[in-house]
Amino acid sequence: MSPGWSAVIKMNAMLETPELPAVFDGVKLAAVAAVLYVIVRCLNLKSPTAPPDLYFQDSGLSRFLLKSCPLLTKEYIPPLIWGKSGHIQTALYGKMGRVRSPHPYGHRKFITMSDGATSTFDLFEPLAEHCVGDDITMVICPGIANHSEKQYIRTFVDYAQKNGYRCAVLNHLGALPNIELTSPRMFTYGCTWEFGAMVNYIKKTYPLTQLVVVGFSLGGNIVCKYLGETQANQEKVLCCVSVCQGYSALRAQETFMQWDQCRRFYNFLMADNMKKIILSHRQALFGDHVKKPQSLEDTDLSRLYTATSLMQIDDNVMRKFHGYNSLKEYYEEESCMRYLHRIYVPLMLVNAADDPLVHESLLTIPKSLSEKRENVMFVLPLHGGHLGFFEGSVLFPEPLTWMDKLVVEYANAICQWERNKSQCSDTEQVEADLE
């Protein structure tokens, strides 16, 4: 090999050798940067914390609420690492429910409905005197396929009891695994029969009590529809709170088939859970010995087995419990949207802006309502997911959520508002008598 060629080889080696580790380090740096970018985006770490957005009309009631409910004007601060992700908040609610959930002691009540169905609810007595000294009962409707034994319900009930509230919690028909159906019917998206029966029981058993109505998710739809169905349903009701509902199933069905925010995936998971519940009661619902309505006679169970969305289940099974001719008719009649304007008691509607189940287009419904009705306040925090609303410093959430505290704080404020109104009326009456 000539000296010139040897010199060229050495020169190339000197030029190339230092570049290899530099290129390798660059690839590692790029990979780390990509991972960090994905983490920041997925955990939404750059999102700010802020007080919830509030939509309401200026009135004496709204001004009183802003003074009496600090949570309405304070920052909601979720856990730093993961709390700004609506998906993680929703997943933790779905899988874990709550942290260190208490076990409140209650009594289970059974009510036989006119069609032979057996409705159940659990009754929990207050553990302290209420702040205004009155007898107040919270009538609570849980989310889809939920009941009093769910951890988020137990946590909320325990907190409400300690604040002086009696609590009655509806167990959705067919949701409790150890309670058999006694008629070919189970809970549906907007059927208010069982909730109404529970409320009537409370009114009859405790004639002096006043009611605070609370609904979570699907339960929010049911309680709002119940109150709006007839003016008589609002008697003895102090206020209503609805958390994380979607307001219109008809408008929501299209968004539930979309993949943005993984709604299609959530739809599949909820449909799978509904299938398991329905099939666990298939003998009571579809057995040959069961005297079932004509609408259920043509139910094709093979379609239920292959259903991958709530809409397919609703069309094949759920709408037929009440004889609806189409899915469109079922969703129109069972949604609370057409009843909201008939509610005259104070009404607080709560949603999270990052709720992956409730599309932002549905939030125009409560916004529009709050612009027209003085009794309505719409509360929209940036974070919270679907029924999450966990609070905490960095990683571990607190046992009690922002949602639990807000509902009780609002109820306390309304009770005080009504007490102040009553005292003012009594004073005016005394003055009038003196004159």
| CATH superfamily caption of the domain at 50-248 and 335-424 | Alpha/Beta hydrolase fold, catalytic domain
The main sheet comes to:
9 strands, mixed
The chain-level structural class is alpha/beta
Task: State the CATH class of the domain at 50-248 and 335-424.
Answer: Alpha Beta
Brief characterization of the structure:
The protein is α/β, with parallel strands linked by helices.
Features:
435 residues, nine-stranded mixed sheet, Rossmann fold, alpha/beta
Report on the structure:
It is globular and about 60 Å long. It contains 16 helices and nine strands. By secondary structure, it is of the alpha/beta class. α3 crosses α16. It has a domain of 289 residues: Alpha/Beta hydrolase fold, catalytic domain (Rossmann fold, 3-Layer(aba) Sandwich), CATH 3.40.50.1820. The protein has a nine-stranded mixed sheet with strand order 1-9-8-7-6-4-5-3-2, with helices on both faces. It is found in: Membrane. Belongs to the AB hydrolase superfamily. AB hydrolase 4 family. Keywords: Hydrolase, Membrane, Serine esterase, Signal-anchor, Transmembrane, Transmembrane helix.
